Amino acid sequence: MLEYKPEIIIDLERERKEILNAFKGLLRALKNRTREDTSMIRRAFDMALEAHKDMRRKSGEPYIYHPIAVAKLC
Asked: Which of 4, 45, 69, 70 is the most buried (most CB within 10 A)?
């Protein structure tokens, strides 16, 4: 017997805004950063965003939230 999996409708524009807000939250958490730090963090974010662009968690949320959360902890 096949398991029924409901279709998840994704609002890509809303997701994009939420991801950018998560990134801004990361920057706010780093209070004593230099311009060079900010530039390096942005490059790392862009790389992670590209690397995980098609990845999703089982819940359906974009995987990129995980690397952002880990960066906040570090």
From this structure: 45
pLDDT band at 60 (very low <50, low <70, confident <90, very high): confident
Look at residues 2, 3, 7 and name the one whose alpha carbon lies nearest to residue 60. Answer: 7
Residue range 29-54: average pLDDT?
94
**Which parts of the chain are beta strand (E)?**
none
Spans of all domains in the chain? 12-73
Residue 58: DSSP 8-state: T
Closest by Cα among 74, 51, 46 to 63 = 51
CA angle 69, 32, 40 (to 5 degrees): 60
pTM of this structure: 0.80
pLDDT at 3: 74
